[in-house]
Amino acid sequence: MNHSIRFLPDNVSIDVEAGESILSAAAAAGIYIHADCGGEGVCGKCRIRLELGNVKNTHGTGLTEKEYGEGIRLACTSRVISDLVVRIPESVGPDGRSLACRPKTTRPLPAQSLETLVGTWETAPPVRKLALHLPPPTLDDNISDMQRLLRGIRQALPDSPEPYYDLTELLKELPFVLREANWHVTVILLHGKHADDPETIIAVEEGDTTDRLYGLACDIGTTTVCGQLIDLNTGSTIAESSSYNAQVSCGADVISRIIYSLKGHGLKTLQKKVVSTINAVIEDVCRKATISPSDISYIMTAGNTVMAHLLLGISPKYIREAPYVPGISIFPLTRAAELGIMAHPSVRIYIYPCVSSYVGGDIVAGVHACQMHDSDAICLFIDIGTNGEIVVGNREWLICAACSAGPAFEGGGIRYGMRASSGAIENCHIHPQTLDPMIVTIGNTLPRGICGSGLIAIVAEMLATGIIDQRGKFSRTLTHPRIRQGTEGWEYVLVWSRDSLTGEDITLTEIDLDNLIRAKGALFAGYQTLLESVGLGFDDLDRVILAGNFGAHIDLERAIAIGLLPDLHRDRFFYLGNASLLGCRISLTDQGRFMARTQARSLMTNMELSDNPVFMNHYVAALFLPHTDLGLFPTAARNRT
C-alpha cells in the first residue's frame, strides 16, 4: 500500500510504500534533512515536525516528552503508516543566519513501465505433463511397456507427432513404475528445439502429478545467484531466493577465477562451488513453496561466459588470452543431475548461449527479454558492472561490446566501498551552504561503507556544491572540517567515527574519485563507440534500457550529472532490473517466446574495444565530470550558466 508525503516548506510530494522511513522518502524526493548516523536513530539530528498523519516509531528516539507532544519526530525512525504532511525545520548556520532546509535539486523522473519493453507472454512452458490411464497387458494385448506408453500418448495427443524417448534411463525404470502405479502414470514431455519437432519423454511418474509442474529460472551471477520458482501450470512466480556465489572465495571477478581454474583441481572446485550455490537457492525456494526439489521439471539459466563454462566444467583458459575465444558459445541441453544439481533426476538445464568471451548469456537473455530483436526502436541496452556490457540496435541489427569499467560501482577500488548490503550508504544529499551530508544507509543502520548507488549520489552532490571540480579534484579554497588532507591525499568526511559502525571516519578520496571517473568514462566511451560504428549518435536513440540490479537503484539525474548516462529526455529511460533472470523466467513460461532467443543471439555482432583507437579517444574525453564536451550534456551546461 502506498501513502503520500508532502514536505514543507518546499511543498514537494512523493508517494512511498507503507513502512518506508521519512528519511528515505525525503532523500528520494530530493529533500535535505541533516542526518549523520544513516538512520540508526542515535545522532538525533534528523528532527522533523509532523503536521498531519501518523507514523510508527521503530525504536526509542531520545526526544523529550515536550518535543514529542509538539509533533517532533526523528525522520530516520519514523515509518509511514498514513498520508503525511511533514515540515522540515530551518537550521541555523554558525553566523546565526537561517539556512535553506534543502539544496535545490530536481526530483528524478521515474523510468518507464516494463510492459512497454517486455510485452506479455503466454503460459505454455517447454515442458508439460500428461496423465494417462493405460490398460494393463493381457495375453491378447502384450505389446512392450514402451509401446503401450506410446500408444496411450498417441490416443491422448492425436495431432502431435510420436515423441522420442531415452533408450537408457527411462527404460530402466519404466516397467517398475508402470506396475507400481497400477498403470496410472504421468508423462513429462519436453518440447523439441523447433516448433514442429517431436517432444521427448523425459520421465514417467506414478499417479496423476499434473498439478505439480514447476520450473526454476536462475541467473548465475559472478557475485550472486538468483532464482525464481515458477508454477508452470499458471506462469506465476511462487518463491524467490538469492545466495552469494560460493566461488567468491576463489576470486572476486571472472579473471581471478579463470586463473584459479588453471591450478590443480581448481576447475573442479569452482564447478562444485557454483553447483552448491544453485542447490542452496533450490532448497530455499522449495522450502518457501513447501515442495520437493524433485517437483522441479526444468531449469532455465543464464550467466556470463565464464560462469557458464565453470558450471559445465569447461576450461575458460583461452577466454582471457587474445584473441579471446571461448571454448563453446552454444551450450548443450544437459541433465541437471549429471552436474549434481538437485531436481527431478530427468530434469534438463538450459543455459543461454553467449556471443563472445565477455558478452555472455546473461546479456542475450536481457536483450531477449526486452525484445530489442523484435522492435523498430533503436535501443541502447546497458548492464553496468565490472565489465559493463552494452548492446545497441533494433530488429535489423544488434552490435554489442564489453568494456572493462572496473569494480568501482560494486565497491571495488573505493577505500570504503562495499556491495549493496546492510550499512552501505545508498543515498546522500549535501547541503549547499553547510556542506554537511544527509546520509541514508541500507537497512537504516550505522554506516559502514559506500555502495555503488551511494557513490554516484555522493559524487554528484560534491560536484553540484563545488566541493570538487570537473576533474574530480577537491577545491583548495574551501575551508571546512570535512574537507581535509588524509593519509591518501585530499578527502571528504562523509561520516565521523563516532557515527560509523566501524568506529573510524568514512571518507571519499581523490583516488576514489579517479577510479569512479575512469569507470564511468569507459562506459560512456563504449556507448559512443558503438553508436558511431553504425553512423548514429545519442539523439538517434529511442530508448536507453538499464539492466542489472544495480541499474534498478541508479538515481537517473545524478547518473547523468556525473556523465555515466547520456543526457537525453528522461522518458527514453527504462529500468529492466535483473534482465538475465527476467529472460529466463519468460523463456521458462512461454515456449513461443523461448524459441525467439535464437533470433536475438544471431543478430548480435560483437566489437572488441580493448585495442580500438576510437574507443580510446572517447575514453580520454570522458575523464571529466560529466565530460569535456558539455554539448553532450545540455542539462549540466544549463546548470552552470
Write the layout of secondary structure elements.
Blueprint: E1 2-8, E2 12-17, H1 22-29, E3 47-52, E4 55-57, H2 65-69, E5 72-74, E6 78-80, E7 84-87, E8 91-92, E9 98-99, H3 114-118, E10 127-133, H4 145-156, E11 164-165, H5 169-180, E12 184-190, E13 200-206, E14 214-220, E15 224-231, E16 236-244, H6 254-261, H7 266-289, E17 296-303, H8 305-312, E18 334-335, H9 336-339, E19 348-351, H10 361-369, E20 379-383, E21 389-393, E22 398-402, E23 424-430, E24 437-441, E25 449-450, H11 452-464, E26 483-486, E27 489-495, E28 506-509, H12 510-533, E29 543-547, H13 548-551, H14 556-561, E30 573-577, H15 579-589, H16 591-595, H17 597-603, E31 604-606, H18 613-621, H19 634-639
Parallel strand pairs: 1-7, 11-13, 14-17, 17-19, 20-29, 22-31, 23-25, 29-30
Antiparallel strand pairs: 1-2, 3-5, 3-7, 4-6, 8-9, 10-12, 12-13, 14-15, 15-16, 18-19, 20-21, 21-22, 23-24, 26-27, 27-28
Helix pairs in contact: 6-7, 10-15, 12-18
Describe the structure using short key phrases.
641 residues, alpha/beta, six-stranded mixed sheet
Radius of gyration equals: 28 Å
The helix content is: 25-40%
Number of helices: 19
Mean pLDDT: 90
Query: Order of strands in the sheet with the most strands?
Result: 16-15-14-17-19-18
What multimeric state do the chains show? single chain
Number of strands: 31
> How does the major sheet shape up?
6 strands, mixed
Distance between the termini: 42 Å
Instruction: Enumerate the spans where pLDDT stays under 50 for 5 or more consecutive residues.
Output: 92-111
- Structural class comes to alpha/beta
The coarse overall form would be: globular
Strand content: 15-25%
